[in-house]
Amino acid sequence: MMLTLRRWRESDLAWSLGRSPEAWISALVLLLYLAMALLAPLLAPQNPFDVAALDLLDARLPPAWTEGGQLKYLFGTDGQGRDMVSVMLYGLRVSLLVGVASTLLSLVVGVTLGLIAGYAGGRIDNIIMRAADVQLSFPAILVALLIDGLSRTVLPRAVHEQLSLLIVVVAIALANWVQYARTVRGVTMIEKDKDYVNAVRLIGMGRARILFRHVLPNILSPVLVIATLSIGLAVLTEATLSFLGLGVPATSPSLGTLIRLGNEVLFSGEWWITVLPGLLLIGLVLSVNLFGDWLRDALNPRLK
């Protein structure tokens, strides 16, 4: 453990991180967001999903620092009397879960197809890349909307509500695999003709082992950069779907769901129900993008 930490401190990546205030500040913010999401049951003053703990008489109370607010509800309450701090912590948890899970799934699909296309070439490459080209002609949010709409048509309503979180993850992942596939394909076409690949091919190693044991470790840098930036995009896509009423249900709200619910009463004066989750969402996406920009520059050999 100590050896690993020492190697990290002596690495170029750690040196670059220390010289970039935007990078380490965004990293600290991301760690704070992650801690709040993981520790939501411990940090939340109230369980927003426990009906017995809710009081409709406390609905739509303003933040504590404004007139009519109560100290026990620091950021006020929503239309169901739920504490906004608690709801935002649990909503952050759902948004991060969807963002990370959909990014990992799209990474696995895109990297696998990109490796196969770049190494095999020929007809297989043409089929995969033409499918990618067709999908690129549609906006990612439109693809996610189409997949979510098809699931609502095929699945019974009760089943869809139970699987809504999984469906959103799959929809966002299938909408964002193309960028991984195209990037990995291009790098694989270069790597497959290098001496180390020819050497393991001569000793009879199978294609799958060559791709995932030897080629994949050498193309991880651009994949990591894309994945980091894609988390913010996935969170925004989920928020957009939830704002349109097609994302996760209101019973397990994400930040996008909270913004939609608050938008319905925004012009009635209950601004905190939509503004505060919106600020939390902005901070999350901004910190992810800043960290991703630093990682892209740090892993780019041309900038060293």
Automatic annotation (TrEMBL):
<keyword id="KW-0472">Membrane</keyword>
<feature type="transmembrane region" description="Helical">
    <location>
        <begin position="163"/>
        <end position="180"/>
    </location>
</feature>
<keyword id="KW-0812">Transmembrane</keyword>
<dbReference type="InterPro" id="IPR025966">
    <property type="entry name" value="OppC_N"/>
</dbReference>
<keyword id="KW-1133">Transmembrane helix</keyword>
<feature type="transmembrane region" description="Helical">
    <location>
        <begin position="215"/>
        <end position="236"/>
    </location>
</feature>
<feature type="transmembrane region" description="Helical">
    <location>
        <begin position="132"/>
        <end position="151"/>
    </location>
</feature>
<feature type="domain" description="ABC transmembrane type-1">
    <location>
        <begin position="92"/>
        <end position="292"/>
    </location>
</feature>
<dbReference type="Pfam" id="PF12911">
    <property type="entry name" value="OppC_N"/>
</dbReference>
<feature type="transmembrane region" description="Helical">
    <location>
        <begin position="94"/>
        <end position="120"/>
    </location>
</feature>
<keyword id="KW-0813">Transport</keyword>
<keyword id="KW-1003">Cell membrane</keyword>
<dbReference type="Pfam" id="PF00528">
    <property type="entry name" value="BPD_transp_1"/>
</dbReference>
<protein>
    <submittedName>
        <fullName>ABC transporter permease</fullName>
    </submittedName>
</protein>
<dbReference type="InterPro" id="IPR050366">
    <property type="entry name" value="BP-dependent_transpt_permease"/>
</dbReference>
<comment type="similarity">
    <text>Belongs to the binding-protein-dependent transport system permease family.</text>
</comment>
<dbReference type="InterPro" id="IPR035906">
    <property type="entry name" value="MetI-like_sf"/>
</dbReference>
<feature type="transmembrane region" description="Helical">
    <location>
        <begin position="21"/>
        <end position="44"/>
    </location>
</feature>
<dbReference type="InterPro" id="IPR000515">
    <property type="entry name" value="MetI-like"/>
</dbReference>
<feature type="transmembrane region" description="Helical">
    <location>
        <begin position="271"/>
        <end position="295"/>
    </location>
</feature>
